[in-house]
């Protein structure tokens, strides 16, 4: 009998993000010395599947899209962390190439999900994300 699976575990993008964490953890372990970017890469890579899981658990499409957008942002942040590692000569282009490719696929899948979900409600992806952010800022100001 197979173990029960949560809905987010069935998503290809969730599985890809877990594979990226394994890859990033290995890369981080090879980077010598103390560098803030190592911790940032660890946090941002962890954030991707956590936001995918949380978003996939939301019933409202706008809420789901908001968390998928957070995951997308974390994936882009990971790509920037890899750039910083290269710029600081803590790693080289060849070492980060695989991770950048994985992140490109993750971002593409997340955008596909966001576009698919927003098509259901007849809004543009940016409209859903902007309006969710605007509402959040309005609540903070109130």
Short description:
With 142 residues, this protein is mostly helical. Helix content is 80%, strand content 0%.
Structure report:
This protein is 80% helix and 0% strand. With 142 residues, the chain is mainly alpha-helical. It has a single domain, classed as de novo design (two linked rop proteins). α1 (12-30) runs antiparallel to α2 (36-56), α2 packs antiparallel against α3 (61-87) and α3 packs antiparallel against α4. The protein is globular, with a radius of gyration of 17 Å. The mean pLDDT is 90.
By oligomeric state, this entry counts as single chain
CATH architecture: Up-down Bundle
Provide the number of structural domains: 1
The largest β sheet comes out as: none
Rg for CA atoms: 17 Å
Order of helices and strands: HHHHH
CATH topology: de novo design (two linked rop proteins)
Question: Could you give the topology of this structure?
Answer:
Blueprint: H1 12-30, H2 36-56, H3 61-87, H4 93-121, H5 125-141
Helix pairs in contact: 1-2, 1-4, 2-3, 3-4, 3-5
Kindly list the characteristics that best describe this protein.
single chain, 142 residues, mainly alpha, de novo design (two linked rop proteins)
